[in-house]
Structures are given as structure tokens and as C-alpha cells.
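Retro notes, item 3 of 5
We never archived the inputs for the adenosine-5'-triphosphate complex last cycle. Fixing that now. Sequence and ligand:
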Amino acid sequence: MKKLSVKAPAKINLALDVLYKRSDGFHEVEMVMTNVDLADRLELSELRYDGIVLESTSGFVPDDKRNLAYQAAALLKERFSIKKGISIKIDKQIPVAAGLAGGSSDAAATLRGLNELWELGLSYDELAELGSQIGSDVAFCVYGGTAVARGRGEVITPIDAPPPCWVILAKPSIGVSTADVYKRLNTSKMVHPDIEGMVEAVESKDYDAICGKLGNVLEDVTLKLHPEVRQIKEKMEQLGADGVLMSGSGPTVFGLTRHESRMQRIYNGLRGFCDQVYAVRLLGEKNP
Ligand code: ATP
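Structure as it came back at the time:
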């Protein structure tokens, strides 16, 4: 029986803008996204019988058809009339409902892995198109690396990787509903981040400009709902991060630094103050 292991990295948003609410109910967004080296690992193994069996090491994610990785497998099975069974084991390392696209990345990794295991021969463009039926962030996660995402998040333009640096991620022990944050967003009262400027900063590997251009229009909404997110931002700034921003709809906050000693200081300063803290590297390069 064939078996395959796939990595599903988390993403952060270096910039996130919302342009307007569309007539289909979705928001038109413009985001600069990049992968970080914090990843779930998925083991995909063929079963002797038809069906999808899912297990995860986290008690916080569903193990049935509500799981996005399950939905990815079901979509491929249905679309290509595959009568084989598959077991999906998720070693969950990415915090759940955190703004780090953990579920979307698991779905994308499942699409990439099953494309190989079942020898479907689909391109990343085709997988991304399928993935966007599952969730808006799945398309980015299919390609990985660094990209501008437009539309409702599914129109992907890959860009060069940012320069290497440390990313400290801190998540308070609250979950944030992305739908709720978007619902509370007042699109007429927003300070829009400079998306073009961020793309230029990333592509020219200008670390200082990247730190200067970090921006997320969802931040104000989540900070108002959860004051502890603001406290974490302030703490990271005090500890010396060069740039600090909330990722996605939150509540995870990330801070950037190029120096290992500074990374240690920020990491140690946040532990004890915050539930989940990680110090990882920017990945930024596309999936092979
Ligand atoms: P995004 O940044 O794309 O908004 P997120 O990091 O905020 O995503 P996820 O961790 O993807 O959020 O989880 C959101 C919800 O999706 C959770 O409440 C969880 O129950 C559900 N979910 C379904 N499948 C998964 C999965 N494989 N991993 C994590 N959550 C999942």
C-alpha cells in the first residue's frame, strides 16, 4: 500500500487590505502572504477499502468531513471518480483558529500529496482552482512561498521571497472567528496598507522597508474585541522586534528580527506572558 508524507506550513500576512464588500458577500482583498517554518505534517496512506479516514493529534480540529483536509480528499475522489480509500494522519503543530491558515494548509498539502499518490498529473494551477472551492486561503497554500493574493484570496501572483529573518509568533488562548471579524469591518473607515510598496520591499529584499510597511486592516477590529492582542503587540515592540503585526484575522501576532539574540529575548519575554509562543524562520520559497 502506497504512503506519502507531506509538509503543510503556516502563513503570515505581511500586508492585508480589504477593498470592498462584493455583491456575492465576499470581501475583495489584497494580501501579501509568505510561509513560515512552522508546519503540520500529514501522512497519507492508501487503505484496502474505499473511504476517507482522518486522525489528528489535536483535540481542537474535527476528524470528519468538517476537516478541510478531509474535504480536499473528498473533492479529488469525487472529481476523478477515485474508488480507493485513503487514511490522513495530521500531526498538528500550527495553532488552530489563529490566523495562520493551518486548516487551509492541511487541505493544500492533501491536494498536493494525493495528486502524487494517485498519479493525477494535475498542475498547481489546477490544484489551486480546486482548493479555492474549499477555502479562500487554500490556493495560496497550494503554491506556498510568497505571493500577492487578490479576489477573495484565491487569485495568486507569486513573488520573490523576502530576505531571511526570525519570526516570533505569539497566540493568546482565544480563538477568533474570521467571519465575525469581516462582519464587523467598516470598509469606509480604514487606513489601507501600501500593498505595492510591500511587494517592492519584498522583491528588493529590503528588510527595513518590509518592517515599515507591515499593515493589516483587520487588526483594529480584532484589537477592539480582544485587548490581550494589543498587549502582546506592545510587549513585542518593547522587547525590540523591528516590525510587529497581527496575522490574518488574528489573534496571532508576529514580530520580526534578524538577530538571534534579539529573537531569544523576545521569545523568552513572551513565554509566561502568552499561551503559545514560537520562534521560526521565514520560509518564503515556493513548494517544489
Ligand atoms: P485563516 O488564517 O485561513 O483564516 P485560521 O488559522 O484562522 O485560518 P484554522 O486553523 O484553519 O484557522 O481553523 C479554523 C477552523 O477550521 C477551526 O475552528 C477548525 O475547527 C476548522 N478546521 C477544519 N479543518 C481543520 C484543520 N485541518 N486544521 C485546523 N482547523 C481545521
